[in-house]
Request: fold
Amino acid sequence: MRAHPAAHSRLLLPLVALLLLAGCASLPDDYRDPRDPWERYNRGMYQFNTDFDNAFLKPVAKGYKAVVPDPLDKGITNFFNNLADITSAANNLLQFKLSRAASDVGRLAVNSTAGLLGFMDVASNVGLPSYKEDFGQTLGYWGLPPGPYFVLPLLGPSTVRETVGVAGDLYTDPLFLDRLVDLGPDRVLWGLAALRLIDRRADLLTATKLLDEAALDPYIFVRDAYLQRRRSLVYDGNPPKDDYDELWNPEVPALEADKPQ
Reply:
C-alpha cells in the first residue's frame, strides 16, 4: 500500500523538531553571522553530508554520467523538470501569480504531449518560461521570515522556513502524491525518486569540482550562496535591501582628514 503524503509529513516534522532542538543545544558561545546561530551544528552536519556524498552519491553519480549518453541524460532531467512544473503551478497559484501559474500549466501540457512525457523541453522553445516555484518561496512571499540557516541531513542547505517548505512540497510532488498521478506501485515510485536524486547529483558534478577547487571555506561559500539565491527567488530576482546588507557591507566612515572643512 502506498503511503499518503500526510504520513510523510508526520514522519518528517518530528524529525525536524528533534534536529532543531539539537541545533539549539549546539549554539556556539560566540558567532559572527546572525543568520547562522547554529553554526557548530551546521558545520558538523555539513561535514556528515559531505562524507556521505563522497562515499556514496558522488561515485554513483559519476558512474551514471559515464554510462548514460548525454541525450538520454538530458531527457531524464527534462522529464523530472516537467513533473516539477506541477509543484510550481500550485505555488504560483498560492501566490496569486496567475500568469506564471498558467505558464506552468501550459508547459506541463505541451511537454507531456509534444515533448513525449517531458523528455523534450518543447515548451521553452515556444516561449513558455520555467519558474519552478516551491512552498518555501510561497511562505516567503506571504511574509514568513527565513529564520536561521539550517543544514538538513542528506538534503543539505536550508533554513527553518525552507525546511517547512520541504514538507509542504510533498503534497504536490507527483512521486509521492498518488491522488494526482498514478505512476504505479511503491517500488516504481521509489525507483523514480532514486533516479531523480542521482540525475540531479550528476548534474552538479562540475559545480562540486569548482567549489572544491575555489572555495577557501566551502561551508561559508555554500551557506552564503544558498541564502542569497533563496532570497532572490522569493523576491523574483529583485530583493529589497535589508539589515544584513548594511551589517555585512558597512560603509567605510570617512577619515577626519578626508572630511570637508
Notes: The chain has a mean pLDDT of 83.
